[in-house]
């Protein structure tokens, strides 16, 4: 009987049979045969390993920080946009805890853990966070936005649009996109840490004189990250560096800035409380047709930004997994399906997250050479536990923890992966144009434009262009570019840089 016909249970061998831990993990990836939309069971279809704790911890730290940032942005934006609304930190934390309970159970533990281990976890759409203030001021409604985003995502996944766009993106274009996202994200986190440090003020030290705290936190973690990379333990980066950032900041006297304010317990899990009245929860009531119209361009933009996001996560698996592991690589269309359903369900329950493929889980999972299901189940249970416990959320959002976790767990690995992909002159040309266009406008439009130029042989590999059909060269890339451009013009994304006012 060939290995293709034998089950995972039959092919599994204990770690003691292998010369190294890495060889054992490679073997596990090669023999897994996950069931798509079926019941996957521990022992029969996958195993829990110590390495699964790493992406679970990394994803937990990352998602607490991201959810908190999203909800605080909604609170600030809606308070500015509506006269009768006054939302603050307490509201933001409660909504974040709503997002961390039922959606974690349904879409981490059940969906990606047991039902379809090829669908990456549905996490947070980081690039949309800076736009939330503009979304609220445009008159959008979180629930209307979620419904539209979910419907558009389901349509794209049904027609296999996500995987098609991934296949049409060359290595040069993808590499340039990852380099830009990694570099700009790295600089942003460094700036945020320094801003926090220079703003520290204690009773004994004059304000602004503790900027050295941020510098030392960064310096220690750079050395630790380099050492982990040297000994091939980079998958430990998020928990190791986040804990180190916490301890270094405390030792240097910044602990007075850490406040424990979140109490143990459950948030209000009644959707009627959040959406049924204009005097409770979000204080918006149910969405009207006007809310859907205002939310429409942002929903289109968010879905258009999914493909490059998903692409980056799948590429990370491909770069770190051995050959012959196609069966455990994340399926872009299945991930899009789960993200779409999670978007609608999570917001209907009272949440406000804008979802996407979970990068702070997938990137460390790929580095640790682990498939999706084991870590997904641990992560879901861990997120639910912390949401109930409460006070760990205060630690996770403290800058020397949150910023360091995002720095070493997302942005530096993205930067490294992008550099690895740009190997030849033709790739560097596409990457350079993508980086340039991203700096001029933004990464989404840069990806769409570079894909159009690359697929037509105007830049990059001309031989590749000759093998593509007319639809692959013109219709699909051109359509994506037009959709992205119209959506950005509609919501005013080009107003800040170039003074082009929003069409809506």
TrEMBL record:
> Where does the record locate the signal sequence feature?
none
The transmembrane residues are 53-74, 128-156, 177-197, 209-228, 235-256, 289-307, 372-391, 397-419, 431-454, 474-494
Give the UniProt keywords, A-Z: Membrane, Transmembrane, Transmembrane helix
Q: Does the keyword Transmembrane apply?
A: yes
| Keyword Ribosomal protein set for record | no
Its name, as the record gives it, is: DUF3360 domain-containing protein
- Organism encoding this protein: Photobacterium proteolyticum
- Source taxonomy: Bacteria, Pseudomonadati, Pseudomonadota, Gammaproteobacteria, Vibrionales
